[in-house]
Design a protein that fits this description.
It is globular and about 45 Å long. It is of the alpha+beta class and 168 residues long. The chain has 5 helices and 10 strands; from the N terminus they run E-E-E-H-H-E-E-E-E-H-E-E-E-H-H. It has one domain (18-167). The strands form 2 sheets. Strands 3, 4, 5, 6, 7, 8, 9 and 10 form an 8-stranded mixed sheet that branches. A two-stranded antiparallel sheet has the order 1-2. It has helices at 24-27, 31-36, 82-90, 142-149, 153-167, and strands at 3-4, 11-12, 18-19, 38-40, 44-49, 52-63, 72-80, 100-105, 119-123, 132-135.
Length: 168
């Protein structure tokens, strides 16, 4: 499988990461709301609602692919508490910082229904890598079951192709 990278314009043979540039909550804002109550950069997002601030960080999630040597990578967003968000942002440039946070998945993937957010553990990684998302195994949701059971290569390639079609 080859694809043309939307970032560098080159042809790659390895699978692309399926990335979301903003949390679903930010996507649901009007353009006016984005400019007045929202803040978004490549790693942080905040939304100042009348009843409080929502805080989000960009993370990664690795989906096991059962019948292939490569896993499917996602770039997703989670919401954090004020304390966790502040700790993460204060240590963002510290390449040796290690911490774990509780978060809520805040990217809605098109292959799943999200009536409620999924609880997660968010683990920072040394070396400047984005934190890793681990869904709570005891939360009953198809996304969580797929995370722990894995998906097929055909399913992974279908998801990649759908994401690539949506970009063009």
């Amino acid at each position: 499988m080859e694809y043309k990278c939307s970032s560098c314009g080159e042809i790659h043979e390895e699978w692309p990461a399926l990335t979301y540039n903003s949390p679903s909550y930010y996507n649901n804002l009007s353009e006016n709301e984005k400019s007045t109550i929202g803040y978004l950069d490549s790693d942080f997002c905040t939304i100042d609602y009348p009843d409080g601030r929502a805080r989000f960080i960009r993370c990664t999630l690795t989906q096991k692919v059962n019948d292939h040597c490569e896993d499917l990578e996602y770039g997703l967003w989670v919401s954090l508490s004020e304390k966790s968000f502040d700790d993460y942002s204060e240590n963002f440039d510290n390449k040796n910082h290690e911490a774990g946070y509780f978060g809520w998945l805040s990217s809605w993937l098109p292959d799943y229904d999200f009536e409620e957010s999924i609880p997660t553990n968010v683990n920072t990684r040394t070396g400047g890598f984005r934190p890793e998302i681990i869904p709570h195994e005891d939360f009953d949701h198809p996304f969580v079951r797929d995370y722990y059971s894995g998906i097929s290569k055909a399913e992974a390639e279908r998801r990649i192709n759908e994401m690539l079609k949506a970009q063009f």
